[in-house]
Input
Amino acid sequence: MADYFTHFSCVLDVGSPENAARALDLYNRLSGENASEDPPSEGFDLSIVPAHGGTCLWIRDDVTGDPEHVIQVVKRCAAAFSLTGRWGFQYANTCSQPRIDAFGGGAHVLDLATGETVAWTYTGEWLAEMLDGSRP
Output
C-alpha cells in the first residue's frame, strides 16, 4: 500500500520575539480547532528560529502536512501582529511508491496586510489543462 505525503518548509518573520511566542499560542489554538474537524486536518510543526533573532517561525511538515492549515496560521499571525508585505511558500506532494498522478505540488502567495491570496498554483491542474488544451 502506498502512503501519500505533502512536504514543505518555510519561514515567517513575525517582527519580534514576543510576537513569536504569541504565535505559538495562536498555532496551538488553531491546531485544537482543526483536531475537532472530521476528518482532522494534517497539522505541521512550528518552532521559533533563534538564529534569526527569535522573530522567525519555522513552519514545516513532520511526516506530512496541510498547506491550508499553514495559510490559516499565517493569516492569523498577520492579523494579530499587523504584518504587511507578501509572504508565500511552496509544497510538494509525494508518494512512497510510484503511482500515476501521485506527485505534484503547488505554491501560494498571501498579502499579509489584507489576508487575501495574491496568487496560487497547483501543478496537477496546470498539467491537466496544458495536456487537454484548455490552457494556452
